[in-house]
Write a structure and sequence with these properties.
Structural class: alpha/beta
Shape: globular
Bound molecules: beta-D-glucopyranose, zinc ion
Length: 364
């Protein structure tokens, strides 16, 4: 079968031929990959700036956002049957007995750093024809979500963030927890992670603003208004305007991976506010930030900064429910996130190219 591989040593990205995997253990499931999404992480790996192949392989099969159809199940698999649709989780636990999170199904909180991530770090990914994995890493997706199920993995970034925010809000005294001014949220960035985050916020009842360098009449900007969020162009409005226009900003969801704009916006986070970082910037030269202002605000306004990497099983399951809800509320906007579909033969060009919102490889 074909797979898209990145060779860090020879700096090549190409389709390789691999043996088709089969279920070896009783809890394993074999999936025919239907679609695989491309994200910034794949582009970084294909640019040899991120990720690591499995220890015994000269190359890394990339792809960590995949929707598949079950074609074979091991004898003790209980939750899936052939014909079901499923999405694969990304992180796999480290091998150390002492790692509580990994031993308890939360490798997203691994304390040793020896976790693997399929398609990213130490394990092959999903930009291929068939994948076998243990049932515990698969999440069933209803057939009605066939068209957009490939968006589930990027949505789990927002789901994990929401899980963190629910905990962080508990610190507020009772009367503040349901204060309506606590429902102003700003999303920085209008790529897939930002737009899916904005959908989650709108669906959760937040007054949601998306702060983005593009224009309101771009495809991204049109999705923002279609879901009932408001668009603010960062090229027209400096961060100081944001606070004036929005009012008290209780929640900022960062989805750019760019530190300059993120810290600029952090400086206008409101009273008792929470700032969630989701982006992974490349390693570049240090930047200048208004650290004293930020530190003063953090202290005097009881602010929290929280980084989050996705995601546990609960976030995937909540994502399935949310994707169903989004498809009820604004189906055209959800569909519009996928701006290109191409075949596995064209996957290399698609990963190396930029543009559009979400490109998806259609495998079967
Ligand atoms: C993936 C996550 C992963 C992160 C860091 C993201 O693109 O969606 O699953 O944990 O990159 O490698
Ligand atoms: Zn990703």
């Amino acid at each position: 079968m074909k797979a898209l591989a990145v060779f860090p040593a020879s700096r090549e990205v190409k389709i390789v031929d691999r043996p088709e995997p089969d279920c070896a253990g009783p809890t394993e499931v074999k999936l025919r990959i239907l679609e695989a999404g491309i994200c910034g992480t794949d582009r970084e790996i294909a640019d040899f700036r991120y990720g690591a192949p499995p220890a015994d392989s000269p190359y890394q099969i990339i792809g960590h956002e995949a929707l598949g159809e079950v074609v074979e199940v091991g004898s003790s698999v209980t939750g899936l049957v052939p014909g079901d649709l499923a999405v694969l989780m990304v992180r796999r636990p480290c091998p150390h007995d002492g790692c509580g999170p990994c031993r308890n199904g939360r490798p997203d909180f691994c304390i040793t750093g020896d976790f693997t991530e399929r398609g990213i770090k130490g394990a092959h990914g999903y930009m291929t024809e068939f994948v076998v994995d243990d049932e515990r890493y698969l999440v069933k997706v209803p057939k009605e979500l066939r068209e957009v199920g490939v968006l589930l993995e990027p949505l789990t970034v927002a789901e994990k963030a929401a899980e963190q925010v629910r905990v962080l809000v508990q610190r507020l005294p009772g009367n503040l927890k349901d204060d309506p001014s606590n429902l102003n949220a700003v999303v920085i960035g209008a790529g897939p992670i930002g737009l899916l985050g904005a959908m989650k916020l709108v669906d959760g009842g937040f007054n949601t603003w998306v702060y983005y360098r593009g224009q309101a009449d771009s495809p991204n900007g049109r999705i923002v208004s279609a879901i009932g969020a408001r668009f603010l162009s960062s090229t027209e409005h400096p961060p100081a305007d944001l606070a004036k226009i929005v009012g008290n900003i209780s929640l900022i969801y960062e989805a750019t991976g760019v530190a300059t704009i993120s810290f600029d916006v952090l400086s206008v986070l409101g009273v008792n506010g929470v700032f969630i970082f989701t982006g992974v910037p490349g390693v570049r030269a240090p930047i200048e930030i208004d650290a004293e202002r930020i530190m003063r605000n953090l202290v005097l306004n009881n602010q929290v900064i929280c980084g989050t990497v996705n995601a546990g099983r609960d976030s995937f399951e909540e994502g399935v429910r949310d994707l169903e809800s989004f498809m009820q509320r604004f189906p055209a906007a959800v569909r519009a996130l996928i701006t290109a579909r191409m075949t596995l033969d064209d996957a290399r060009d698609a990963v190396l190219a930029k543009g559009g919102i979400k490109s998806v490889i259609t495998v079967a």
